[in-house]
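Human: Note token order:
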Amino acid sequence: MKIKRISTQKKNSERFNIYVERDGKEEYAFAVDVDILIKYNLQRDKELDDDFVKEVLTAEEQQKAYRLSLNHLSYRMRATSEVVAYLTEKETPEHAIKHAIDRLTEQRYLDDQQFALAYTATKKATTPQGPGRIRRDLEALKIPKTAIDEAIVTFTDEEEYEKVLKFLRQKQKELQRRSVRELTQKLQMTLMQRG
């Protein structure tokens, strides 16, 4: 078979529909990203065999996974595990996920070390959470232990102490109505939850 016609998609000018001639009739074959169109030199009257089409479609799946990942990363910094989960949810094939993750890591769009540092700094500045809770959150995101340790080191004892004092000051009025034992239990429970 050979390519009979290539047309731009109406909703996305970066994607192209490929039509082939089969038994003297034109029929839709597949759609590709502009990068794949250029990389494989897809043009009118080009002869296609099954192996070549399979290679093009594999590259198309990888390109689609990469584009989905970039869009997902455009909203905020993410851990590698978040991007993998997102692509899996979108029913992306394993080989395409691996290719996209490798490419994004190589281009430094994905970096769990930087993510851990940024996550810790943000949580430290905007929430009452302590280092224990932040560690648990990062472990849940499958951040490597060395990256977590390096990020948590930025949390000083003084900062942790200040968070506890701030919490106690906020709860002072509410806690005056409780017994000492009940008060101690409630404070310990809340402080442990916050790490």
Strands lie at 2-8, 15-22, 25-33. The first strand starts at residue 2 and ends at 8. The chain has three domains: 1-48, 62-109, 112-193.
